[in-house]
Records
---
Amino acid sequence: MQEYKVFQISKDEIVPLAERMKKNGVFLVMVHGFIDKEGRMDISYDYAVNPVIESYHVVGEMKVPSIGSIYATAAEWPERELNELYNVEFEGLDVSKRLFLPEDMLETQGKGQIMVTPLSELVEKNVK
């Protein structure tokens, strides 16, 4: 069974941690995000520190630095997904195009509304 360790960090520790992990040859497994029981955003950075998965959580932040310049696509895709679905802003991340959602989807009040608004209300109706 894979051992799993959880740590809480601040948003200021995200980049130095990623740089240290990359320098040591540690793989980024995934960047996850969810809303916790208190309604706060919880962003986790999971690293394969053999034989352990170390999960570093940043809680309550909606604006954090991107680690895409350190881990390339392994970080960029999950960061873009969290931006699109939860409106988490990753500083330095290119979000000029949508990752999953259709380009004709209405811009709602803010971003990240896909998680709380039915799709039928988000798609523009082209009436001629």
---
Amino acid sequence: MKTVENFILGLDGQQKAIVSYLHQHLTENHDLIPKISFNIPMYYKRKWVCYLNPIKNDGIELAFVKGHRLSNDQGLLKTKNRKRISGIDLYEIRSIPMRQIDEIVQEALIIDQLFTI
């Protein structure tokens, strides 16, 4: 079984650094449970909450499975023409807006408790 740590080892450059940083943050600060699903790291509480997906130009998308239910008060989430999922494209650790991401994760955790779909 592939682990998130093995997934991280298979990445290079900024993708490796970003996924490693976010993985540690999501598991330690938000008590999310990591699991490789669909060949990418997915993070669970009750259900899927978010995932980390490599994107072009050495970036990572932090995507929220129930993004359509999030307020997006921070203005960071993009749907990319998806109906339910919203995400944030990240390209450098130093430019990750952690305070705003933590707000989004907290809202996603509340939604995870309230809605099954």
---
Amino acid sequence: MQISIKDATLNDLNEVNSILRISKSYWAYNKEFIDIFMENFGITPEYLENHIIKLFYIDGRLAGFYNFEINADNLFELANFFLHPDFIGKGIGKVLWDSCCQTAIEKGKYEFILWSDPNAESFYLKMGCEKIGVRQSPMMPDRYPTILKFKIKQ
């Protein structure tokens, strides 16, 4: 298995959003939910110009992507972490996670927060994240996904 990582460019935008849609759809959300999700959280050219998105390839195929940002509370946050469903359950998520943590270290950060989809929370807990709170969903007022914190061991 050959792994490569590169920074996304505007030429990658359609493929990134395709992975985003397919990955989110894996959790059996209905089309209306996915369309609203993509409207609110799809990667735009403006977002890509202001954030470094790391593309994660397995044997030349885009398997996933991630990126960090400084959030409104001035905290280092894993803003996106998506894996194509073809790679779920094969240990690739852990490899992507390790790459993500290496990127954080390269930025001088040894902890970060993330906002988890309820369906992915068990993965993040398995990686060593701890629950620190909840946040109201901007899409579903009665839904409160978990906020997690991860500390990289030094």
